[in-house]
Amino acid sequence: MLLAAVRAGDPMVASALCDRLWPQVDKTIRRLVGRRDADHEDLAQLALIELVSTIGRYRGDCSLDTWAQAVTANVVFKHLRRRRVENRIFADLLVDDDIAAAPTHVERRSATREILNKIAKHLDGMNERRAWVFVLHDVMGYDLREVAQMTKASVAATQSLLVRGRRELHDRIGQDPALVEVFAKSDGEEARS
Amino acid sequence: MSGERYAEQARRWVRAARPEAPPRLPSDRHRLVGAVQGALRTRRRKRMVVRSVTVLGAAAAALALVLTRPDVHGHLTAQAPAPAPAKASTHARDLTVVRANTDGSSGIALGEDVVKPVRRGMMLQPGIQLVAPNAGDVQIGTAQGTLLTLEPGGTLTVTEATETQRFALLRGAVRARVTKLAPGERFLINSVDAEIEVHGTQFRVALVEGDAGCAVHSTTRVSVTEGVVSVRSAGQEVRLHPGEEWPAGCAPVRVAAEVAKPAAPVRIARRSKAPGHTRHMAAEAPSEAPEPSVEPATEPAADHTTAPAPTQPPPVRTIALPAPGTSAPVASEARPPASAPPVGPVSQLKEQNDLFAAAYRAKREGRETDAIRLLTRLVRRFPDGIHVESALAERMKLLAVGDATAGADAASEYLSHYPSGFARADAERLVARSAAARKP
Q1: Which chain A residue is nearest to residue B24, measuring alpha carbons?
Q2: Which of A153, A166, B361, B424 has its CA 20 to 30 A from that of B431?
Q3: pLDDT in tens, A2-46
Q4: Nearest-5° Cα angle at B264, B260 to B268
Q5: Three-state SS at B269
Q6: Residue A13 with chain B: CB contacts under 8 Å
Q7: Beta pairing class for B186-190 and B164-171
Q8: Alpha-carbon distances of B265 from A71, B151, B154, B209, B275, rounded to whole Å
């Protein structure tokens, strides 16, 4: 009923539509731009408008939540490309203030921020699509099909981007002795524990 | 996996440092809902625009389709306002008057309670009877391209206008050009004693006075210009091909003007409103068949409708029309007109028809030898029969396929009997070809 009304352009269902789709829109934006991004509300509004105008393309092949995530992710990607003049997408995404506020030892928090900064720097230096597929799949936990919908690529192409992205990141980190040393130390601690 | 080891460690670090953030509610929900409402309204407007464009596009396509039909171009451009082409598309079988005189002598149309002058663009519903003026013809047609020309002085009733288009020719002659019929569609013209079914063609049907010299006592004459026409009469069906006429061997069809000449001022009466004439008709035609009858009028009926004023004072004739609501005034079974001479020996005619039909059937089924044998038998047995000319012509063509000399001999035989027959050109060609082949 809700979908039929949205397809017909009934303005009376606006409130119900917002209530239904807000959780997925909000979660996707938080994941992709960070929880304290200043553009969060604007992005959410843009995503909901985009969902209304493209509802005709939704054929029920996936759940409405998945489709809302994909549309929102596209809106976010477009926004990020316009907003970021310098390659700091992942630095802003991965290193936010909440890490600093985490209830851990100060030295530990500082080291974590430094390591995340280094990883984000490598991601920002990578092929953007490969980096996004790696972050969306490996870090954020979306499955390949969802990532494919978000990035408007086929599942096969997404799989290929993921494999190449992992390899590229591995090669980049391999050339960063400081980060390699941190990872080696971390491996040793895990092995001892 | 070792090639991606550092990537795996990077993933673990990032995931550990970024716990799932708690959901948050929009700070300004009212603004958000307002924006979505705006988007929904925009969507509704776009849908309406798309629908309008689709409807207009369909109408434009229908208009283009109809206007590219040369036979209806003039009618539609002159008569129809903008929405009309769409209607023409949806009611492609609707019959309208395509051409009529504009000088007041356009003829009249008679419906159940309608008597009005024929005007271009007039829709013709079943039951309408058209009477062409003596000075001009009336053309009716459909958007599909079918065109009927009712020749001067002719009278035609629209009996059916559905998938089956059926007309009844009561008087005069009508020329028909019929577009290719879709499956399930039929086009028929009934005359007094025959039913003519069309298979996409051009032909002419005429009603003539009695022809004593004709073996078939029918007042209907059919000549085919193009395509194939089936004529059913006296329980028999004959298929006519281009150049052929029905009945075969009868006098050539005269033009309508000649046929209708003595009927210049036409008085038209309905049976129900002219009891005197009804009784008179009943006396002459005891059966209740609603056949039209043409007879000299002794006095004008009270409710007669007078056709356009005559230029000369020819004899007055009255046509008794069927009462409103009655069925088509003709039957597919042959029925001799009241004034027709007595019918000849039916058994002999039936035998001729049977032989001729059997020969055609054999030809259709590819049994040429049987067809030739049957045609030869028909010619020998009934040398003065109604099918002789057609049989000789057909036999000549069949023989020519397998043996040019035999075909030429048959052609010579045809020409000796029918030097001006309808198959003269074919016969002369066969003779000439055979003669050329014999030359050293």
Answers
A1: A26
A2: B361
A3: 888 888 888 888 888 888 998 889 888 888 887 666 778 888 999
A4: 95
A5: strand
A6: 40
A7: parallel
A8: 81, 16, 12, 18, 21
